[in-house]
Design goal:
By secondary structure, the protein is an alpha/beta fold. Helix 2 runs parallel beside helix 4 and helix 9 crosses helix 10.
Length: 230
């Protein structure tokens, strides 16, 4: 169980990390400070203070596209030198070559997990360790199959599933990703459309368009190879 920390202040982030550790969390995923666009020094100091307040392993969520702050390689260098419990990155810069840059710079010191559904297979094939997936909530078998096949070197089989999956994965690269995924969960009988306000379930033409994508995918859902015994 990994608890996400997305806070405005260092004090609040430290308190949430303390509560997570007390409640038995396995680790933390941390975003940079929210709302305020911290500079590099402020961002590094924020991560350091929280990391040094807990024994839990930490994954840095690096998503400058959505959150406006990039954790650069030089910033990671300083963090990894001072904080041994910073152990992974959720790589969401959308620059797939950044995976190779991280690997070249840090070797296996930092686990790399793809955080962008539409770049997942490409990321796994060039060395990402894993995938923090979104549509897995509605299509778990297909998501795991792509991961297992890619890691086993069965690239063509993984590509075939991934190409079918792509229109669904694109629902995750959207402001209303939560509503989209929840609607997909209804279609696969895994969940409900319930969302936390101010988000509201999709309605009108927008809902019809998303449902059409989901329905088309389910109609052509592929037969999966035996990925559990690779």
């Amino acid at each position: 169980m990994i608890i996400n920390i997305a806070e405005q202040s260092t004090k609040a982030a430290i308190e949430l990390a303390r509560m997570a550790e007390e409640d038995g969390a396995s680790g933390l995923m941390m975003l940079p400070p929210m709302r305020y666009k911290a500079d590099d020094r402020e961002t590094v100091t924020y991560f350091k203070k929280v990391a040094q307040s807990t024994t839990l392993p930490i994954m840095i969520y690096n998503n400058p596209v959505d959150y406006g702050i990039e954790v650069t390689l030089d910033m990671f260098e300083e963090l990894l030198n001072d904080c041994p419990n910073i152990q992974a990155v959720k790589e969401s810069t959308r620059d797939i070559s950044n995976i190779s840059r991280i690997r070249n710079r840090f070797g296996d010191r930092l686990a790399i997990l793809c955080g962008v559904d539409t770049l997942a297979l490409e990321s796994l094939l060039i060395g990402a360790d894993g995938w923090v997936a979104g549509l897995v909530c509605a299509f778990p078998a297909e998501t795991v199959a792509i991961y297992e096949l890619a890691k086993a070197g069965k690239t063509e089989e993984a590509i075939a599933i991934y190409r079918w999956f792509l229109p669904l994965l694109e629902l995750d690269i959207n402001t209303k990703l939560v509503q989209n995924i929840k609607l997909a969960e209804v279609a696969t009988r895994i969940g409900t459309e319930n969302v936390r306000e101010p988000r509201l379930p999709l309605a009108g033409e927008e809902r019809k368009k998303v449902l059409a994508i989901i329905d088309e995918a389910i109609k052509n859902r592929p037969l999966l190879p035996d990925y559990k015994n690779l």
